[in-house]
Amino acid sequence: MNRRKLVVGNWKMNGTRVGNVDLLGALREAGPYVAEVAVCAPFPYLADVALSLQGADVAWGAQDCSAHESGAYTGEVSAPMLAEYGCRYVIVGHSERRAYHAESDQLVADKAKVALAHKLTPIVCVGETLAEREAGQTDAVVKRQMSAVIHTLGHCISQVVVAYEPVWAIGTGKTATPEQAQAVHALLRAQLKAASEKAGEMKILYGGSVKPDNAATLFAQADIDGGLIGGASLKAADFIAICRAGA
Ligand code: PGA
Q1: Can you tell me which atom of ligand 1 is nearest the CA of 163?
Q2: Which pTM was predicted?
């Protein structure tokens, strides 16, 4: 199966209005790309980002959305609001949200569901902590996280993008080896295949300290369809190099 690579920048809580203009300008100039490219920016910047990227070969998304459509949920942002701006992607279940905001597997699944209902593509993150890996629980943890989403979405699971992000590799400079990552990606692909006949077309991204010098080897693995890039997505030259590694 020849799946087009997808490279997504996750800016996390970084950026400034002025700095974003430079970064997005550089990304636009470097296009078009062989891979699909997107950036997920903080909420207040999204309208600016949408404007800056008009007509560019770069899509954009958000880093989270509410599991609710509207109502008394102070501080939350809904999927229909994002959709109004032409948002394409929304990250759900990032390990930082699971850890710091106590997001459960079911909440993450509910967010993916509401995103899909508004024609946004959820990027569903799964991944084990270092303690879980060392205890030999990697497979069980990612399968449990994935299975909540499969159960909630049913056959619509084929419309999501999955991102495998080992928590111990995020922002630490410790990348999973291509073999370690491929093993988990293959496991996830098999689990998705049992749920959907379209699983062979689904994109499973790797995230966790992806840099220009390790991207190509990671992306060359059979079940790795691109990356979710944190730190390196804030530097235009590095992010562009990673996008090109997805050729
Ligand atoms: P990192 O972050 O590339 O800085 O490790 C990846 C992520 O958290 O999505």
Answers
A1: 9
A2: 0.97
Residue 182: pLDDT above 80?
A: yes
Task: Give catalytic residues, as residue numbers.
Answer: 94, 165
Domain architecture of the chain: domains with CATH: 6-245 (3.20.20.70)
* Cα separation values, 108 from 56, 91, 163, 220, Å: 30, 10, 13, 29
The beta strands (E) that lie in the chain are given as: 6-10, 36-40, 59-62, 89-92, 121-126, 161-164, 204-207, 226-229
**Which residue has tokens 């501080």?**
75
Tell which atom from ligand 1 comes closest to the C-alpha of 233.
3
Query: Which of 214, 228, 235, 238 is the best mutation target for the ligand 1 pocket, counting ligand atoms within 8 Å of the beta carbon and taking the most?
Result: 228
